[in-house]
Specification:
single chain, mainly alpha, 6 helices
């Protein structure tokens, strides 16, 4: 395909300014293929501006042991809500009464 200066300017505008891909640019020219446009872009020395990749902040997931503790804590609080005494709930779940009292304070906050 024979490219004119007007075609080159159009390709530059569509590729650089509008961010169009080769297929979209080729569809605007009669008889141009995607590969012809890719070759012309290469010969014109056009490059896409490199956009720095934004890393997503890493969210730390609790491990299985931490999730198990959370579920146990919920079970302890559920037992207390059902009317069990702090001492009984602590004994049932194998924890100190201070731990259960701390859970109650934390849940109330």
């Amino acid at each position: 395909m024979n490219w004119s200066q007007v075609d080159d300017a159009t390709i530059k505008r569509l590729f650089d300014d509008e961010g169009r891909n080769f297929r979209e640019i080729a569809s605007m020219f009669t008889g141009a293929t995607r590969n012809a446009v890719a070759g012309r872009v290469h010969r014109l020395g056009l490059r896409r501006a490199k956009v720095p990749k934004v890393k997503k902040p890493r969210v730390e997931k609790p491990n299985a042991a931490e999730r198990a503790l959370d579920l146990r804590d919920l079970d302890i609080l559920y037992d207390l809500a059902e009317g069990h005494a702090v001492k009984d709930a602590a004994k049932h779940w194998g924890v100190e009464t201070d731990y259960v009292e701390a859970l109650i304070k934390e849940a109330a906050a």
